[in-house]
Amino acid sequence: MTKKELRKKYKELRNDLSFDAIEDLSLQIANQALKLLIWNFENYHIFLSIHEHKEVQTDYLLHILNGKDKNVIVSKSDFKTRTMNHILLTDNVTIKKNEWNIPEPQNGFSVADNQIDVVFVPLLAYDVFGNRVGYGKGFYDLFLSKCKPDVVKIGLSFFNPEKLIEDVFLEDVRLDYCITPDTIVKF
Predict the structure, then answer these.
(1) Is 65 within 8 Å of 72 (Cβ atoms)?
(2) Is 162 annotated to bind ligand?
(3) Is 41 annotated for ligand binding?
(4) Full-prediction pTM beyond 0.70?
(5) Residue 174 labeled ligand binder
(6) Which chain positions lie within coiled-coil regions (predicted)?
């Protein structure tokens, strides 16, 4: 299937999930994450979930990261340049939804792309090769291309991988792992 077809399919699949199911599945994903050998790093980038899009709820992962005393980094998107400014999440950071309902930091200390060790990546779909389908703006591919070469890229999904995304581009950055409620897929 093409990215466009997969976006449509997985938006519908997520829309069919109840909010209670999303909470339960998100907790299962966070518990699966504990099995990965990624917890010796320092700087973890995580997306703040768009509730209205029924994304994997990252609150549980945030609790794990805070409990392990890790540096948590979140981003604010610049839609003109398709870039993201990364902010260290502290108690003093104010989070506010933008016009697309994306929760974003309004203040705080900037963190450079190359300082980030692990990135939890949002997605709609992914394939068995680690290719992902996002919302189509390219924010994460651009961001991940600027990270250090050994950054660990982890997708979060309620669903299993597709066999193949037909229209993968050279600029698309592959995942290292994708965590589902039942398993961890390694690429």
Answers:
(1) yes
(2) no
(3) no
(4) yes
(5) no
(6) none
